[in-house]
Amino acid sequence: MRHVARKRFGQHFLEDRSIVAAIVRAVAPRRDDSMVEIGPGLGALTAPLLEHLGHLHAVEIDRDLCARLRERFAPERLTLHEADALEFDFGSLPAPLRVVGNLPYNISTPLLFRLSALGGHCADLHLMLQKEVVDRLTAAPGSKAYGRLSVMLQYRYRFERLIAAPASAFRPAPKVDSAVVRLIPRPAAELAALDAEQLARVVKAAFSTRRKIVKNSLSELVSAARLAELGIDPSSRAEDLAVPAFIAIANSLHEAGPR
């Protein structure tokens, strides 16, 4: 029976075979890879991945789709985790982990924040996302798309846009276009934050009131004088600060200790 897409799960199934083939070529799966697919859905990408892999993990929340996938793929080839990707422990899978997925639109941003901490466990990530989200991930300081998501993901990963996917490539067709992006974890030597949680707090506070200047948005964390000492204009806005500036603020707070 034809599966009816469930809006509450943000389901839009990729049906364009040429795009599926392009994704598989970009991923270039190898037989011994440790790989997980997020949101396998109807298996459009699952099947061609398994033509190259010895085994694949998949995380799927829809139990009806899980039943279909279990009927189609042998358990020794596909380990299906019936779970919410926002709660699943990706760190429990063997490293170095390769992540592939057509992320549901309704959870793509919180899931990306969750995956931001997975860099040290991953070899790479190939993700289908709304084009607007890819624009935010790759945005430069000073642009309207640059924000909290940009800073936190750019700190952990390098990005490469790979494949454009128009709305017509999906069933049901979404209202926006999509794109596939490759995320490569930065080596540990490039992760200069002394406390990743402190960095996350600084970035969240700075962008919580986007139009405020940073001496106001960060007033509960750091003084205007200290910002100036760090070479940061206290009258600038969060969207004007590059990733190293946020790292400098976080490291200063870490070195100063509890207030």
Task: Describe the fold and architecture.
- The chain has 259 residues and is α/β, with parallel strands linked by helices.
- It folds into 2 domains: 7-190, Vaccinia Virus protein VP39 (Rossmann fold, 3-Layer(aba) Sandwich), CATH 3.40.50.150; 196-256, Helicase, Ruva Protein, domain 3 (Orthogonal Bundle).
- Helices cover 34% and strands 20% of the residues.
- The chain has 10 helices and 9 strands.
- It has helices at 17-27, 46-50, 63-72, 108-115, 131-138, 148-156, 196-208, 214-217, 224-229, 243-256; strands spanning 13-14, 34-38, 56-60, 78-82, 97-102, 122-130, 157-165, 170-171, 178-185.
- Helix 7 packs across helix 10 (243-256).
Comma- or semicolon-separated keywords:
259 residues; alpha/beta; Rossmann fold; 2 domains; seven-stranded mixed β-sheet; two-stranded antiparallel ribbon; 9 strands
How would the blueprint of this fold be written?
Blueprint: E1 13-14, H1 17-27, E2 34-38, H2 46-50, E3 56-60, H3 63-72, E4 78-82, E5 97-102, H4 108-115, E6 122-130, H5 131-138, H6 148-156, E7 157-165, E8 170-171, E9 178-185, H7 196-208, H8 214-217, H9 224-229, H10 243-256
Parallel strand pairs: 2-3, 2-5, 3-4, 5-6
Antiparallel strand pairs: 1-8, 6-9, 7-9
Helix pairs in contact: 7-10
